């Protein structure tokens, strides 16, 4: 990072540099100009106003809304609630920070008293703060709750404060009913007013949960170091989630990346005639026009170039070992139907079946994938991947599916369970297609290890490592 503006104090500039590096390491692309802009932000915002600082840095460092959760987690680690002038990173002593920020403990049961009495008092206080809607007070109460209820025996990793202990003791979700009654203020329940009150209550409880988790991260960072906590606390961005390790929540986020990827992939695979901006030369019109210039063809005429949508055939491994990858790629197949004249999808485990019928326009892709598991004839023997048999079944049942206008995509890890790989059949399919690519969700270093025949497949078809949506985007841009 270049030297910051002279008006930024040296210690604060170094702290900002660490924060910018952490944001970049978390997968958010931050260039030199953005880092310089972040330094400029420190000279124009009120550094004592934490939210103003958050929004100022976010405005210059972030490019997409999906990056915001990652940024917020890192911001809370580098600029915690307990910041004081000249102490941008907060104190390494959580107790000292509590004293400095004046956590309100008036009316609390005495220390060392009945834990049940303490929890009941804190539940009542939490309900009062949720009703008031004071976000700052709620965050300070979260710090107090972690201090009083969140400490336990240190884990093997060295962590001694845990959010689940606080949330288990206070059970904030059980306060929703009382919170709704309080927000209604004695008015009759039901209808729109109750729906609004319930939604408001859920949002405030979620904000309290987030404050507790942020405070636990702060204290853990004081114990173990900010950098170490940042590596484990920050979830990967949606386009960096490994398909083979994706959870249901990750797949839901990945659905938002499918449409733009489909548009780009369709544009790259389009079977356009590369004869310049216009089509073939129209000889007759060109000669006729040359009569006006003494037979010199100074102006040429061309036939309009017909840009057509290509055909696409997708062969997708849907076995359990690549479930997350197949889920995403089938979503991509559904999106690609808008850009190709003929999209035919085939799924296989140890046999192959056409599943195009499950992806009609307007069909929910999650339901379509569930139907594939129930209704598609993709298992012939034991339900373990058999690429050789799957390729042979495909070539035998659908011999005309792949032709000169067809782009072929094979999606799978290439692990054959030590069965015949079907190289000759695949090579014939590649020869007959217009273009063919194999997208493999396993790391390149594992190709050819164990029962993987990926190194043999890549001899007959271009194979690309695609473990994340970001890698898929890179593949599309390099086609």
User: Under the CATH scheme, which architecture of the largest domain would be assigned?
Assistant: 3-Layer(aba) Sandwich
Instruction: Round the Cα radius of gyration to an integer and report it.
Output: 30 Å
Number of strands: 6
Number of domains: 4
- In angstroms, what separates the terminal alpha carbons? 33 Å
**What is the 3D form?**
globular
CATH class of the largest domain: Alpha Beta
Verbal overview:
The chain is α/β, with parallel strands linked by helices and 479 residues long. Helix content is 51%, strand content 7%. It has a 6-stranded mixed β-sheet, sandwiched between helices. β2 and β3 form a beta hairpin. The longest helix has 34 residues. It starts with 9 loop residues before the first helix and ends with a helix.
List keywords for this structure.
alpha/beta, Rossmann fold, 51% helix, globular
């Amino acid at each position: 990072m270049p030297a910051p503006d002279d008006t930024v104090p040296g210690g604060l500039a170094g702290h900002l540099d660490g924060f910018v590096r952490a944001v970049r390491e978390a997968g958010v692309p931050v260039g030199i100009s953005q880092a310089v802009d972040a330094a400029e932000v420190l000279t124009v915002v009120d550094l004592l106003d934490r939210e103003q600082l958050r929004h100022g840095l976010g405005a210059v460092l972030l490019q997409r809304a999906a990056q915001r959760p990652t940024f917020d987690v890192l911001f809370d680690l580098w600029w915690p609630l307990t910041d004081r002038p000249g102490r941008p990173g907060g104190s390494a002593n959580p107790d000292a920070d509590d004293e400095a920020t004046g956590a309100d403990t008036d009316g609390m049961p005495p220390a060392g008293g009945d834990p049940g009495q303490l929890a009941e008092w804190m539940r009542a206080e939490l309900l009062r703060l949720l009703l008031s809607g004071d976000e700052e007070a709620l965050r300070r109460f979260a710090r107090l709750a972690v201090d009083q209820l969140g400490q336990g025996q240190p884990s093997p990793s060295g962590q001694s404060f845990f959010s689940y202990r606080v949330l288990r003791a206070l059970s904030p979700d059980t306060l929703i009913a009382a919170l709704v009654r309080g927000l209604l203020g004695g008015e009759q329940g039901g209808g729109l007013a109750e729906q609004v009150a319930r939604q408001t209550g859920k949002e405030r409880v979620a904000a309290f949960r987030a404050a507790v988790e942020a405070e636990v991260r702060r204290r853990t960072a004081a114990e173990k170091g900010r950098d170490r906590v940042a590596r484990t606390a920050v979830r990967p961005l949606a386009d960096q989630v490994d398909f083979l390790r994706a959870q249901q929540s990750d797949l839901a986020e990945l659905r938002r990346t499918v449409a733009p990827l489909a548009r780009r992939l369709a544009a790259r695979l389009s079977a356009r005639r590369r004869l310049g901006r216009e089509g073939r030369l129209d000889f007759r019109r060109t000669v006729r026009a040359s009569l006006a210039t003494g037979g010199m063809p100074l102006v040429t005429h061309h036939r309009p170039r017909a840009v057509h949508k290509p055909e696409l055939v997708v062969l997708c491994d849907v076995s359990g070992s690549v479930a997350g990858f197949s889920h995403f790629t089938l979503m991509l197949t559904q999106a690609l139907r808008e850009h190709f004249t003929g999209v035919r999808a085939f799924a296989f485990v140890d046999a192959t079946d056409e599943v195009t019928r499950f992806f009609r326009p307007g069909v929910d892709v999650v339901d379509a994938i569930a139907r594939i598991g129930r209704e598609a004839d993709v298992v012939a023997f034991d339900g373990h991947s058999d690429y050789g048999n799957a390729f042979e079944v495909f070539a035998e049942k659908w011999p005309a599916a792949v032709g000169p206008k067809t782009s072929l995509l094979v999606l799978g890890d290439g692990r054959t369970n030590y069965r015949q790989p079907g190289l000759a059949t695949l090579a014939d399919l590649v020869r007959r297609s217009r273009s063919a690519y194999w997208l493999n969700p396993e790391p390149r270093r594992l190709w050819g290890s164990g029962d993987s025949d990926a190194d043999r497949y890549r001899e007959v078809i271009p194979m690309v490592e695609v473990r994340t949506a970001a890698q898929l985007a890179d593949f599309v841009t390099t086609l």
